[in-house]
Amino acid sequence: MSRPENQILVIFGASGDLTKRKLIPALYALEIQGLLPEKFAIIGVSRSGLNDELFREAMEQGLEEFSDEKDKTSVSVFLQKIYYQSVDAQDSSSFIGLAGKLSELQTQLGISGNTIFYLSTPPSLYSLIPQNLAKNGLNIQNNGWKRVIIEKPFGYDLQSAIDLNNALQKDWLEDQIYRIDHYLGKETVQNVLVTRFTNGIFEPLWNRNYVHHVEITSAESIGVEKRGGYYEGSGALRDMIQNHLLQVVGLIAMEPPASLNSDAIRNETVKVLQSIRPYTAEDIIKSTIRGQYISATIKGEKHIGYREEEGVNPDSKTETYAALKFYIDNWRWGGVPFYIRTGKRLPTRVTEAVIHFKPTPHYLFAGNHSEESHNQLVIRIQPDEGILLKFGMKMPGAGFDVQTVNMDFHYSDLSIERIPAAYERLLLDSMSGDSTLFARGDAVMAAWNFLDPVLMEWKNNPCIPIHGYPAGTWGPEKADDLIDEANITWRYPCKNLSDDGIYCEL
Ligand code: BG6
What we know:
Elements: E1 7-12, H1 17-32, E2 40-46, H2 52-66, H3 72-79, E3 82-86, H4 95-109, E4 115-119, H5 128-135, E5 146-150, H6 158-171, E6 177-179, H7 187-198, E7 211-219, H8 228-232, H9 235-253, H10 262-275, H11 281-287, E8 288-294, E9 296-298, E10 301-303, E11 321-327, E12 337-343, E13 350-357, E14 376-382, E15 386-394, E16 402-410, H12 422-432, H13 441-460, E17 467-470, E18 504-505
Parallel strand pairs: 1-2, 1-4, 2-3, 4-5, 5-6, 7-12, 8-17
Antiparallel strand pairs: 7-13, 8-11, 9-10, 11-12, 13-14, 14-15, 15-16, 17-18
Helix pairs in contact: 1-2, 1-12, 6-13, 9-10, 9-13, 10-13
The structure holds 6-O-phosphono-beta-D-glucopyranose.
Residues 152, 220, 239, 351 line the site of 6-O-phosphono-beta-D-glucopyranose (BG6).
């Protein structure tokens, strides 16, 4: 990788958690790999009245806590690249100070006008900050490019996403806007492209003729932690499915792109999202499940339910679990069900995509094979990143006893020391002007377009239950009914942990 051009990165929301936990550690990791621009500065921006020194101290503490590799010399070199400017995002005149700081640093460090503005702020500021930047001429690309990175969630529903997009596009060109989805920065998510398009053996099978169904799971063992306030207004569908999981669907289901060019890839993923069969009200009742974790004892330890979490309404209807079944109406996938699910307080943290292949047309060894007889390709996105192919093999000895065995690759087997964090890759790409791994406006709209009716129906139809599931279990038992075929269930990478088996309708 070559270093990006000289530039300044401005981070709005600099006193927030994301900056300290993810952005600064990712930038520091780029620093020690020699991947930051030769001439480079970071300006942290928030309302607090800090100065360069105090902000550097706070970032140093963040690195102490959240960076896996650090040494004193490189940390102090890196910290010297960090500056601070206080700005009230609501007040456009307060951006004059930022413009001044930018031009001062540009002169001092010999950097042209190349600037990225990273919005790591509450979503309510996603249209206001770019607007105020523009009012102060900070979007004008006369002495260098200007880019704006928008964190998720991009909108709250279809209409708000359209409004946000329109607001941004008044002052910014589409190729200046980078909508970040950190899942696209994960190595193993990018590896979906490589697995599919460098191995001649998979692509001929990657369609409705050979694939029985596709299953994508993103399970988390943590609850909502301190984010109850945010999560109440979001829920699993908005928080994980609208963005992360549908982006993974896009990569699994896309047609081979003509090239690795950003538009070529994004043209193909958007077609997938636009081809998802729209739900009718009846489909939503049959093909979607929502749940909420309730208190339970896990290995003797009591865990509170979602409604008892800080910042959560005690009568909340917000889902902490969502599972959907849907179809992609195109020639490749016609008739193949896609199942996706996500949840908090499940038994483990795992994100994986599983391609379930059809069984052989005539199975000679029925009766000799106790497990499911079809092949599965498991793409393990995290943790224990890797890829696993399950296939049947004869057990040594008399007769034809067949057992399912694994061909299993773990990234940890490679002699590389570490897998770069998603934010490292995405920050580097945005600094280099590569938007391949960022969601394009049309893809975000297509995802909302598909989910908007679900949000509406879940909100307005009292007949759609919200199932309570004990913390530490795999979500509502009802989710098993989505897969209505004999001998097929979700893949359960580990067992329920909860000692309580009480499921209920909330
Ligand atoms: C975030 C969600 O986008 O992704 C969180 O807001 C979730 O609720 C997180 O925990 C999961 O990310 P990862 O990388 O840990 O799978």
